[in-house]
Amino acid sequence: MEDIKYSNSIIKSPKKGLLLTALLVAQFGFAQNKDDNFKGVIGKTLAESKEYWPEPVNAPKGAPNVVWIILDDVGYGASSAFGGLIQTPVLESLANSGLRYTNFHTTAICAPTRSALLTGSNSHKVHVGGFSHTSMSAGFPGWDGRLPSKNGTIAEILRDKGYNTFGVGKYGVTPDEDATDAGPFDRWPTGKGFEHFFGFLGSATDQYKPDLIEDQAHVTPDGRHLSEQITDKAISYIQRQHKAAPDKPFFLYYSPAAVHAPHQVATKWSDAYKGKFDDGWDAYREKTLANQKKLGVVPANAVLPERNSLIADWKKLTPDQKKVYSKFMEVYAGYLTYTDYEIGRLVNYLKESNQLDNTLVFVMIGDNGASKEGTLQGAVERQTYKVGETEEQVFQNNLNRIGEIGTPQVYANYPLGWAQATNTPFKSWKQDANSEGGTHNPLIVYYPKGIKEKGGIRNQYSHVIDILPTTLDVLGIKAPETIREVKQDTIQGYSFYNSLNDANVVSSHKIQHYYIFGSRSIYNDGWKAAAAHHPNSIEVKEALADKSKANLLNADFDNDIWELYNINEDFNERKDLAKKYPEKLAELKKLFDEQAKKNNLYPLIDWSDVYFRRIHKTPATEGQSAQELLTKANK
């Protein structure tokens, strides 16, 4: 302890800071720490002081509103806006008055896509390589499912730039353990920049009995379809804000659960499609491809890939099979058309309130490709296959319950044949990060004040991480160095703002990696290397049942077969060039490894490996068969 003389007395202080305070008090009679952000003068009295009030943050005068719309589990060839046979007149109208982006990409599954969208950075980089669900996350930087504060969301950025920020529908990136009314709430939407949020935190929910929250509490659903409820809430948020501050812009994140399973919709929507798909999924693909060529959203010389070997020739199906499979598709189509109607209610409100012309709208038609999760037969229950059940037994159950498909009583999802059809012109589907069928989705950009050409086509390569920087570029906002005093990472996406009024501008986005559950690929300026990853099902069952066989789960990562495509010439991956250009393949595989290290992608993990680690730590799983465990893992 130091002894210091002052004014003929001794001050004893254990800390120099306290000593200094004591000296100031002794000399001046008061002491006050100065806030670094304070620009006024603090004297001993008010007369000796000068007040300072920081200027409120306001968006620039006339700044546009921003609406992001993202649908769920919609393939490239589903919506009529991109040539599909499902009527979406509102999306068509937005596209015809705006732009169709034909070369836009997602991550191949929902949570990684949404984390990348909200932050403008790759999903593993922001810790959501899989899901935020406990059973589908892992304790590594790229896999723990927790968005870091250093990767601010679009809502946080715009909130701090003078925007009101609203979100409705599916969020999907809140860790399960945080998703109770006890919080913590820092990873709920309201903790990530949304001033108001109404929807659900998980990846999927029942459309009539959703696991619903508003702001920071669970609320009771009112029995109406979720899409109607979220649209009402979005309009009410905007109405309330517009009345209080008509010149203040808003950001709206509109994210319906549609058209993720369960496929549930009022019969008036599905009945409109009765008989429309009776000629089957093969005919659907052919008709859709022809429409896509007319619209110009695929190359004029495009050719369909071969029908997947798992999918039956429609002409060889029995009458009962055709009846059941058609019913599933009628419900899905009605569900998508109904979703388009609800989007129309939002658009019409903005138009009637004279706000639409000054609104920048991005519509992502799908957060991944069409879903394969309905399996070969389609599903009427979340647990599609019961223990020991055969394909024929699953089909007979679906046939017996055909009248319930689409109703609140069942968890409906269409069969695999319709996933391939609605993914036209691509092969594979959701979860397949190696394939354009998993990652290639339609994008519409609508902005009357900023787009001169109406109904234009844009073919520049882009990715979901590009939406945030493009939005900021249109608004004239720089990415912040800090958000609420937290230093920010560099945003990884590339703005494509310059393409809004220039169809020939070259894309700035040259390199992009993809990875979901082991399937992976790397894109580099028109070339793409890709590896599917499908562990042998028997090996997976054995490993899940027997802890000693855990090595079987990842046994084939090194044996995965890589393919090579020239996407500029072969956009839907029909010609594997791996044997023709082995040096190019080796170059891209090396680039994938570099990107993986840069973006926290390692270790390579697939869902079965993560689930294996979980089940062998859980006493409740003892005595259950491998099939039962697999069924649980698929939930």
UniProtKB/TrEMBL annotation:
Any coiled-coil regions, as ranges: none
Record has Metal-binding as a keyword: yes
Extent of the signal sequence: 1-31
SUPFAM superfamilies found in the cross-reference section: Alkaline phosphatase-like
Keywords: Calcium, Hydrolase, Metal-binding, Signal
Gene3D superfamilies attached to this UniProt entry: 3.30.1120.10, Alkaline Phosphatase, subunit A
InterPro entries: Alkaline_phosphatase_core_sf, Sulfatase, Sulfatase_CS, Sulfatase_N
GO molecular function: hydrolase activity; metal ion binding
Annotated family: Belongs to the sulfatase family.
Protein name: Sulfatase
Organism: Flavobacterium gilvum
Source taxonomy: Bacteria, Pseudomonadati, Bacteroidota, Flavobacteriia, Flavobacteriales
